[in-house]
Design a protein that fits this description.
The structure holds 2 protein chains of 2 kinds. Chain A is mostly beta strands. Helices cover 0% and strands 51% of the residues of chain A. In chain A, the strands form 2 sheets. In chain A, strands 2, 4, 5, 6, 9, 10 and 11 form a 7-stranded mixed sheet that branches. In chain B, strands 2, 4, 5, 9, 10 and 11 form a 6-stranded mixed sheet that branches. Chain B starts with a strand and ends with a strand. The chains are: A mainly beta, B mainly beta. At the A-B interface, strand 4, strand 5, strand 6 and strand 10 of A face strand 4, strand 5, strand 9 and strand 10 of B.
């Protein structure tokens, strides 16, 4: 158990819909990262927040957005969903933003029908 | 744009033997490399890392080798154990740049 929690575990929705994925980092961690893992792709870095502020942006689509709240939990919002958005979405956290000290949550499996 | 590639989707090894997982990258600016291990229904777990100023880093049964001229790194597990069976992801980044690029993963099966 990494200490990072993600809800929900599974999400099934239809094209065109909007969903919100939630992540609670490990206690004391200030940084949250979001990743997408599609079927035959590696983990794709989407975005990072550090203490409420956006720190780094990766391959995140304009239809996707995220935020980190004062209590440090984070939400990833996915809108106008397409079939290709079906994937595992991982959240990770770290104390100070160093890449090798990221602790991953169990992921949310999103299925878009 | 797959900057980090793991060309072997799977690898099967006998318990006690060496497992060698390979990873290639295209961006010569990467200067920090990591391996993560992932069990089913869990998130990836950090395993071992190496800076570009080194060509080898060892941690117990795990050794990572870096060949910068070939833009290639490998993870050696000796001896392999059934509990090592998992998906292994190679990742690369510019140190302190958190846009980490992952490979597609290699599924390792260690047979008893």
């Amino acid at each position: 158990d990494s200490g990072v929690t993600q809800t929900p575990k599974h999400l099934i929705t239809a094209t065109g819909q909007r969903v919100t994925l939630r992540c609670s980092p490990r206690s004391g961690d200030l940084s949250v990262y979001w990743y997408q893992q599609s079927l035959d792709q590696g983990l794709q870095f989407l975005i990072q927040y550090y203490n409420g502020e956006e720190r780094a942006k990766g391959n995140i689509l304009e239809r996707f957005s995220a935020q980190q709240f004062p209590d440090l939990h984070s939400e990833l919002n996915l809108s106008s969903l397409e079939l290709g958005d079906s994937a595992l979405y991982f959240c990770a956290s770290s104390v100070d933003g160093r890449s090798d000290e990221q602790f991953f949550g169990p992921g949310t499996r999103l299925t878009v029908l | 744009d797959q900057q980090v590639k793991q060309n072997s989707p799977s690898l099967s090894v006998q318990e006690g033997r060496i497992s060698i997982l390979n990873c290639d990258y295209t961006n010569s600016m990467f200067d920090y490399f990591l391996w993560y291990k992932k069990y089913p229904a869990e998130g990836p777990t950090f395993l071992i890392s190496i800076s570009s100023i080194k060509d080898k880093n060892e941690d117990g049964r795990f050794t990572v080798f870096l060949n910068k001229s070939a833009k290639h790194l490998s993870l050696h597990i000796v001896p392999s154990q059934p509990g090592d069976s998992a998906v292994y992801f190679c990742a690369a980044t510019l140190y302190n740049n958190n846009d980490m690029r992952f490979g597609a993963g290699t599924r390792l099966t260690v047979k008893p």
